[in-house]
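Tutorial sheet, problem 5. The three components below are modelled jointly, 1165 residues in total.
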Amino acid sequence: MERRRVDFREATGRLRLCVRTTLAFTGLVALCACRPAPQSAPAHADKVLRMVPQSDLEILDPVWTTALITQDHGYMIYDTLFGMDASGRVSPQMVETWDVSADKKIWTFTLRDGLEFHDGLPVTSDDVIASLQRWGQRDTMGRKLMSFVEGWEAVNARTFRLTLKEPYGLVLESFGKPGSNVPFIMPRRVAATPVSKQIDDTTGSGPFVFSKDQWRPGEKVVYLRNAKYRPRAEPASGTSGGKTVKVDRVEWVVIKDAQTAVNALAAGEVDLIEMPAYEQYPALESNAGIQMVEPNPIGAQFSLHFNHLAPPFNKETVRQAAMAALNQPAFLQTQVGIPGRYRTCFSVYPCSTPYFTTTGMDFIARPDVNRARQLLGESGYDGTPVVIMQPTDLAIIAKLPVVAAQLLRDAGFKVDMQSMDWQTLVSRRAKKDAWNIFLTGAGAEQVENPISNNMLSAACDKAFWGWACDAKLETLRDAFARAGDDQARKALAEQIQARAMEIGALVPLGEYVRGTAARRTVTGFVTGYFLVLWNLEKQ
Amino acid sequence: MTPIWRFLVQRVVSAITVLLVVVVMVFLLMRLTLDDPAAIIAGDSATTEQIQQVRESLGLSRPIVVQFGIWFGGLLHGDLGESFFYKKTVVQLIAQRLEPTLALALCTIVMAVMVAVPLGAIAGWRHGGWLDRMLMGFSTLGFSIPVFVLGYLLIWLVSLKLGWLPVQGYARLADGFSPFIRRLILPSVTLSLIYTALIARVTRAAVSEALTEDFVRTARAKGLPEWRVVIHHALANAAVPIVTVIGIGLTLLLSGVVVTERVFSIPGLGQLTVEAVLNRDFRVIQAVILLFSMTYVLVNLLIDLTYLVLDPRIRY
Amino acid sequence: MIDLLDSTVDALPTAAAPTAWRALATNWSVRLGGSVLAFFALVSLLAPVLGVIDPTRLDSTNINRRPGVSSAVTLANGESVQRNFWMGTDGLGRDIYSRVLYGGRVSLVIGVSVATLSLLFGLIIGLASGYVRWIDVLVMRMMDGLMAIPGILLALFLVALWRASLGTVILAITLTEIPRVGRLVRSLTLSIREEPYVEAAVSVGTSTVKLLYRHILPNTIAPLIVQGTYICAVAMLAESILSFLGVGLPTDVPTWGNIMAEGRLSFNQYPHNVLFPGVFLALTVLSVNMLGDGLRDTLDPRFGKRGERP
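Model answer (structure tokens):
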């Protein structure tokens, strides 16, 4: 085809029209853009708190998934029977009174007066029992509890009874469990949804109401104050106490790019960033309008997990050689690096929790690359490359695998570090032959005792990712659940730790404390295990 | 049938064929090789058997042909299924995300044309001279900087240091024109730099070529001022190539939209697709790819029809 | 629609060799672009001897050093040397200068590989489609389909399918570029086929292969080279975008893209992480684009006849 040479009035006429229209449009646009921004909300308007959540809210069912964002969502719209305060004590939330029979097998609970769901219906025992039963099918602590349960009974609308086959020491701890999966109380009709399906109905009895029609997945999530919520009288601490809401609306503004989130906070377009990356702390701290707060001083724990089924870590001696090379300070300084925000902790239990002990941790407490090399040689390691999975998009743990790779290489391992996004990692992790090591972090509330810490499970196929298999460890964990008193539990906790280190069930890599970045106009932060949005005020 | 109709029918048939090919390719590729989202949906502490349960409840363990049949059947009814992650239908999700991406794309094209056409015309007029080199160098530079670096720099300069425009986000048109346009300016500028280079280049080529033609010499001999010669005679020649390059560059634009939406936190189709691919949300991926392909085919069809307007000598 | 753009590279009579080369050498775009590109290629090639240390060596004592700061570094063998970090260090304590230099190798390799591979496959597909009717119908539909999907999304999709490694990234970006090359070659083939000398050759009984090789192929070289430079530029940028989206190469293989992706979290405080690789990338891509522009200006004879100016 020939190129066209054009010279005619018609086309130029039309072209001129196009040009003129465009110029006019531009002029209009420029005029509108130059008008000063509308003043922020007239006096009578709602008080809105805007937060950048740690990730996008996708799944609304807190029993279906253990995702932290869904847990956050749950705490907004649901309430729990018991809560845990900042010092680790279980205290009643929806429950008014409770008692235990002399043989410790019958627990009776009475709910507080006047508890209502968002649709106005009262919270009854039937709702509670249905919710707990659904939760108990999924959660590790829940399942353990359910295996002791003889039966449930709704005595009347406000009282229910739990009958056990034998005494179980962690009943209240299970109901007051702060971390995923949380035993949130839902209406009976919602809890009747089979566990294999996600719930659809977001009715709860919590301090906020989820505004489903204002929810834009990937953009924003809107919660309105529940005017009918009756908070407890005690001060808020952890997940217990009075959950008083002091704003009219909370918006979770989803900003995927961490840099953009920080810029938005600096410009005042959002009020909070739930979990900024450590790399951004210097920039945040140097901004006069921003404050860093610590809603969770107890912190969280990094850990490394071996795949016990695939070579080379299917041999215990090779695992031990690797453990000798792992060096907590290296991980912490590189991943966190900010003084005061990390500490070494040579225990599988977080340092400031009741079961902390250093029994059996000498190995980890004194890493030695030469000893590691020696152990590796003795173990008969044949050079199989160690596949370490690295999540590129989770800043909080993205650097750990890089450190692990270097330490293991120095010890003589052949390492193949594979980078991928977190979703791919989660998919790969479920495959028994696709990886050798992955690293992660978990909140202190998740790992503070051997039952709630499902990463300590050695139930082979049913264990945590890595499929650790050890009957002895499982027996010890079971004994812990049945133990009658604190002293017995502590002793068992020590033995569990020692055994876990022998078999390399997991390797603790130290503790870190997350901060939340907020504008200075926001006050009233509650100390506990994670950020909660009640009690917050905006000047 | 008149030539126009025959042409249209031909194009529609070929368009449908292309779309079918795309759809089948993407479907097969995904289901045959991608890890499925069951593990992601089941969550961190799910056991292997729970993941299998999830897989079955999502219909992912059925044979490929059956799955395709179900999806295609739904497609013919306008039902694209529900997202694996969000409890919303795919159609709802896409409808929500359509406005921001469309607004960004249109704003970008308008901005790019407004800057690039004069730039290219001047460069073509002064072909070979220092002005030409400078302008072309400048536009090529815009094409060479990674989009996100440019975005960060602009945000840092315009939003943080100067405080003129918001950092991020998208305000719907229904909520007011001023916030809508203020949030669109920076992302459009960032994105338009790529397009500007393309359009400027094409304009320059067309103008420069037209200026060597006889009719231009005639126009000059007639005593027309130079600017009239360039704009009314030479530039009109560029209309067709410019429109062409807009159509072809559409996929390039959409690529840039993905990054820009992420940097400026605009809840558009680009971000939706990236999340869907990373999440293995098959139904969303299929729907979005179908949508993009349809857009591409449609836009190019429209452009072909625009040629009829711009050049009466074109006949189909 | 596409045909229009293809027609902008009509059948080119093979230019007389000496004039073409001279024109090439004197074109300012080619000279400038070519020399800057050669500079970057040389620097990347000579990286090991340009004062670098191990680009993957973590160093928790030297985190986030600003450019120009000097500090003690402990090497792998245990010795301690004083080193000036010309481009600073990143959040893991790795030397940015070393990473940028080594990163150049990977980025350039990606650019050149993608360009070469897509030209090769595009050529084969285009020649086959232009000459054999049934191949045309079949293959071109697929090519159209591929072209309808935005490049980055297709590449993202493919890299997510396979594991992110040098090979898969190159392959993914190549696949997104092949259709355009294929279309280009196809339209060239189609138009050259109509030329009288080709018809003459056919009537004499020349085999298809010889025809393709002798008459059609030479006329595709020039436009392909031009296209190749643009593909190289696009590929290098695409790699940086894939890294930005989180599906780039693992960070123990530094590329300009993943250095920027890793460093962007601390952009406000430590912009050197992003700016140094960014500038290198931008300048390299710019030089490749200029080279392409220059090649197109010289190899396309219509710009040769630049006629009188007022």
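Marking note: Chain A has 17 helices and 21 strands. Full credit if you identified this.
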